[in-house]
Amino acid sequence: MTYDATAGVSGPGGTPPGPSPVDPSTLPSAQDAALPPELAEAARTLFGDRLDLAAAYAELLATDGVVRGLIGPREAPRIWDRHLLNCAAVAERIPDGATVIDVGSGAGLPGLVLAIARPDLHLTLVEPLARRTAFLIEAVQGLGLTRTVRVFRGRAEEAAAGPGGGDPLSADVVTARAVAPLDRLASWCLPLTVRGGRLVALKGSSVADEIAEHAATVERLGGGEPTVYRCGVDVIDPPTTVVEIVRERVVGPARGPRRAKRRGGRSRGR
Prior knowledge:
Blueprint: E1 2-3, H1 40-47, H2 51-67, H3 79-88, E2 99-103, H4 111-117, E3 122-127, H5 130-142, E4 149-153, H6 156-161, E5 171-177, H7 182-189, E6 193-203, H8 207-220, E7 227-231, E8 240-246
Parallel strand pairs: 2-3, 2-5, 3-4, 5-6
Antiparallel strand pairs: 1-4, 6-8, 7-8
Helix pairs in contact: 7-8
């Protein structure tokens, strides 16, 4: 189901469940989301005149995001270096005026960060969980991003198939962060990418091993050779590692890595 950011929260299963009880003593305050002085220059470089908007999002993550279980309490003091700056650095890999789909957007990382840093982009945040999409819609409204960001509740496969019998979603760039290994990620994201567009996946130190293991699957799914880039060099330390895959060919219905069938029953799907 697609949501306009100005719409109310609804969908399969009705009203999203409320947040789980949280021990008040463990809750961070808005002060935990304050920009550390040593990161101020990097933040100004990456967010420019929208730094105040980034700060408002950081505060939202550190307060409401923690209460609703979207990030852990221990992440609040690390929001800027571990999350906001890490994600904002990826903007250098996205062309001017591009359409972007952020798969598994969660709390809006990197999707909302890119929307703040790059107002020229048009983004769709794809997220299957109701409580997360509720947060995303509220964040988009509260941050004044309704003109450039929309929220889709569902899986990537549903978005690519055409939600509600409508047109399939697609974009110039598809982003993902901490979603899945490269083979499954390609099977979900490449069908959302226009031919000649690219998947930009934020990855960690094991990215070379992932590429070696899954390059054949990526090629079978119509992707080109995975290429690693370091984003934010000379701005943040460490730089953000991304792997890019260009969709070179349009193949049939995407099939991810095969899963072994369990004895006496059918294999489990995603």
